[in-house]
Amino acid sequence: MPSETTAVKIVEQLVQQAEAAQASDIHLQTVGKTGSVSFRLDGVLSPQTALPSETAECVFGRIKFLARLKTYQDSMPQDGRIAKEDVAARNDIRVATYPTVNGEKIVLRLFSNAAALTLGELGFPDEARSNLELFLRQTAGLLLLTGPAGSGKTTTIYACLRHLAASSGRHIITIEDPVEQIIPGIMQTEVAEARGLTFSKAARHLMRQDPQVLVIGEIRDDETADIAVRAALTGHLVISTLHAGSCKGVFDRLLVMCPDRHAVMSVVEMVVNQRLVRRLCADCHGKGCAACLQTGYKGCVPLVEWLRPQGSAILTPPKALDAVARDLVQGGVTNEVEIRRVLGL
User: What residue ranges define each of the domains in the chain, with the CATH number in brackets?
Assistant: First the structure.
C-alpha cells in the first residue's frame, strides 16, 4: 500500500513538472486499474504517465485534502483551491472533481504568471492591436471578445486591464469566474453561483459602486446583456465575452438577448474573434523533440479577426479568420494540420 509520503511527493512532482512544461491544466482520471495523468499543453491534452490504482487513490485523496474537499465524496462534483505553498507551486491551483462511469476525474487548473501579457505581447496583428488601444482610450463603449473555451479571451482581457490600470487612473471593476490574476489598483470580484451571485446579479449591484470601466467575464443571459449595453450607453467603458462563431455572430446573438437594435449598434465599438493555434517548435520544426515533449509544437500564437462597426450594414472584418490562418502557415509559424484542428477546415 503506498504511503501518504509517496502521495505527497507525487502531487508535488506532477505540479512542478506541469509548471516546467508550461501546462495550463493537469488531468487525472481512473482508467481501468490505473490512474492516467495528462497535461494540457498549448490547448491540447498530452498523456504523461499512469499510476497504479492504489497509488492513484492516495494521490486523489491527497489532492482533495489539500483543496479542503470531502475526501470520501466521489459521487458528486466538488470545487476547491490548493494554496501554492502546500505543493511548492508558483501560484495557487484551482481543483475540480467530477464522477464518471470509470471513476473520479480531477482537473487541476494552474494559474500561471506567464499568462500576464501586455497588449504588445499578445501577438495580435498591428492593426488589431492599435484599434484595441484606441478603444481603451475611450470613456464609453462596449468591447466584446468571442471564441471557444481556451482561445485566449481571458488573457486578452487581462492585458487590457493591465493597460488601463497603468495608464488611465479610472475606477475599474471586474466580475470574473474565477479571478485568475490579481491586478493591483483594480476592484476584482468573483461570482459564486452556488450562493446566487451570478454575473447579472453582481453587475446590477456593482453599478452602484460607480465604475468607470466594467469588465463582465461572460454575457450568459438576457439580463447581463441588457446591463452591459445600458452601462455602455450611460458613459461606461464595458468589456465582456460572448460565445459566438464569428464577429457577425456576436451581433446576431446579442440582438437575440437585447432586441434594441439601435442601442446595440450604438454601443458596440469593437468585436474580437480569436483562436489559439500552436506554434511549430523552433528546435525541431514540428518533428517532435524533448523540448516540446514530442508534440512538435511549443507555445501558441493568436489567430484573430476583428471588427470596428461602421453602421449597422458593415459587419465584415478587414481580414477573415481563414485568411489570417493561411498567412500563418505560409510564414512557417504553424502548419495546416494545426489549422484544421482549430478551425475544422
Answer: 4-113 (3.30.450.90), 116-343 (3.40.50.300)
